[in-house]
Amino acid sequence: MEVFLAKFDAGCGLAFVVVQHLDPDRTSSLVELLGSKCRLPVELIGNGERVEPNHVYVIPPDFDLFVRQGRLQLQKPSEPHGLRLPIDAFFRSLAEDQHRWGLAVVLSGMGSDGALGIRAVKAHGGAVFVQSAESAKFDSMPRHAIDSGVVDVVAAVEDLPAKIRSYLEHVPAPKDRDAHAPELSDEGQRALRRIITLLRAQTGHDFTGYKNSTLLRRIERRIGLHQLKGMTDYAHYLQVNRAEGELLFKELLIGVTSFFRNASLWETLKRETLPDLLARFPDGGKLRAWVPACSTGEEAFSLAIVFQEVLQDLNPPAHYDLQIFATDLDADAIDKARAGVYPTNIAADVSESRLERFFTAEDHRYRVGKEIREMVVFAPHNLTMDPPFTKLDVISCRNVLIYWEAALQRKIFSLFHYSLKPDGILVLGTAETVADTPRLFVVQDGKNRIYQRVQDTERAGDKSAPPAELPQTRGLAPVDPPLPVLQTPNIQTLCDGLLLHRFAPTAVLTTKDGDLIYVRGKTGKYLEPATGKANLNLFAMARPGLAGPLDEAFARARRQPQPVKMTNLQIEGLTSGLVDLHVENLSEPPEMKGMCLVVFHDRPMTANTADRQASGGEAPAAGAENSRQLAEALREARSDLAIARGEMQVSREELQSTNEELQSTNEELQSTNEELTTSKEEMQSINEELQTVNHELQAKLDELSKVSDDMKNLLNSTEIAALFLDEDLQVRRFTVEATRLIKLIPGDAGRPVTDLVSRLDYPKLSADSHEVLRTLVFKESEVSTHDGDCYRVRIMPYRTQRNRIDGVVITFVDITESKQLEAGLRESLTMLQHRFVPAEDQLDATGDLEKIARRYQPLLDRRSAPANKSPTHGKSLPEAGQ
């Protein structure tokens, strides 16, 4: 931060807010540390303080920070200890308050704090700058930010200020923040239409229905990042750089998403909306929901979690399932959603109980539990172009429609009305409403934007998706709405359909495990539902006589590329003929790779076969004997099989018991792992705080070292010998000059002063020092050395900053030269008195020189004139002052 802030001048026009992980139990010196290196004023944040340009604001310890209407708001954390995410919280408030004029900068740090907040900054039109992981001392925070995929600039910390200045030179000034979308010139309108056309050609997606303000904000950001002059230049840049088209496409798709966003909505869904929906199906059932524009899946998983909580609270006697279809235009976001893996900082949005029940803690992340993951199906889907899902109970489309023009919004509402069942539920974002289509939906909860489908209504618009300019083969295949116009029948199509209906064999398409995907023709002759819980598995549904051969053929087909055929199979209870079986493991088309095709061919029964069946028990005696032996062997085989089954059942029970024990152990380990993860996060936070404390102490140490050097040079330059003694008159410190008087070496620190050899003839040094310590009054005296030098000795109490007496300071000033000058003056005075002063007026020259000078001054003043002669000696006195 010192390196970063030192690059900005005092008039840069920016306001900086520093948010760092600090120890809540100690005072931070961050303000002093940054202030010593920064040309901007640095201050600790006060609650409600208005943000001013050209200032640096530092978060105080043990507070969370938010910005609202340009003022900084401090708030005590809800938990005194544990995982805190102050950077994420501040970035989110910055995005909501400052929109595109908020910049997020992520520097060296541990953990993943900030990775979610920068998505909000980017979604509201701001820019994100991150220190390169290679240049960071702790690269965890920069790496998590970069992995989020929303970072605009990655650079070394010393290069980031220049990048920020370049970006700001090409975006509108903050003074225009209250204005609406700027009016484009004719040239700008042509450039915008050209950009939309290039996007459609490069990505296959049409943004014609998007609001101009939405498009312009994102395009202006790209213009600023590339330091271009305007829309026309950017259109040209987009045309020659295809990679830029993909980047702009992803930037237009960035949305603000998080788990349980807008908590009151989810509470209403849990307490009212979903229970009322379940009450419509007292016998249970499978509900269907659709989450368009799901981004990375947080909204879809939130809905699944709330549904499971509703089931747990109600504990209904009937069985309910919820199938959620989650779609998005961004294929990369869908891939992340399918993985179901999120950083640890989702703990700020997901309660501890939900994390424990619905998530699995892994290395620095949380994975969505299997129960929730299996409820959601993710697929790429274009809401404005692809066919919709149908027969839905719930649609949750939040914070998407606000980016579209009114005409496209009406079309989407009509499409939602078509997709929902009667009385189906529609959930919108807080800034969205169905006011333009009142005949389609009625308000159920206006505050949380929950609406209900109107049952009997005339079509209020075209329910089909807008015609696509490109093929619409994306993800899942929702049911197409009825075509409004009938086309002329095609003879070839009709003929192919007739042949398929009358002459094509019965067939089923399965997964690699035998689960049915598609059924062609009437399969009741070959397959029947198994008793018990519904099971659409091919082997469970196979009729007696067909199960064994089918299992064998299926296994062989999976192992070899060639199809497997088995002929003349007799199905028990079927007297009309035989069956030929054809099993093939598909490798093409690519969409069906890995699936298996099973075809059933009926074979008519021949006359010989019919005669054998009709003859029954009239076989010869030899045949009867053979039949008896075969029956006996069959009974033995069945007995052995029963024994084997019994043993297998025992083994199965043992394995089940072992599995339960392992599950219990796994839950304990999972709980321990979560505790360790929390402890690790706390340790990471403490480590960051200790790093800050260490930096502060190092700065103080450097300052003390500098002060010590200054004092040492000052004392040496004055050539005054100084000796510092503690309360026991033991040596604490001394100057170089002191070693000329007292035999001192660095190792003498801690020795009593009376044990040292000295040149001074001062036996009362110890006694005078004790006297000063007792009276706290300094003492000054003149002493001589053994070789005739003279020193003025001054003993003073040693006072600390807390006004505590902690020893004495003894200074030795060399006055040898002064004493020599004084002796010369006295000798001159004696000579002058003998020459010019009558005997009765002479003073003792060994007395106080100042007193003598005062005594003679009037006499000198009276007799200083050259004309005056001494009456006694007849000689002139010296001039006044001589």
Biggest sheet: strands, sense, closure?
A: 7 strands, mixed
Q: Uncertain regions: pLDDT < 50 for 5+ in a row?
A: 175-181, 457-488, 616-620, 867-877
Number of helices: 24
Q: What oligomeric state best describes the polypeptide chains here? A: single chain
- Estimate the strand proportion: 15-25%
First-to-last CA distance? 69 Å
Strand order, sheet with most strands: 15-11-10-16-17-19-18
Total strand segments: 29
Determine Rg (CA atoms, Å).
Answer: 47 Å
Net shape: elongated
What is the structural class? alpha/beta
Work out the helicity level: 40-55%
Verbal overview:
40% of the residues lie in helices and 18% in strands. It is elongated, with a radius of gyration of 47 Å. With 882 residues, it is α/β, with parallel strands linked by helices. The two termini are 69 Å apart. The strands form 7 sheets. A 7-stranded mixed β-sheet has the order 15-11-10-16-17-19-18. A 5-stranded antiparallel β-sheet has the order 21-20-24-23-22. It has a 5-stranded antiparallel β-sheet with strand order 26-25-29-28-27, sandwiched between helices. The longest helix has 98 residues, at 621-718. A hairpin with a 2-residue loop joins strand 13 (359-362) and strand 14. The protein contains 24 helices and 29 strands.
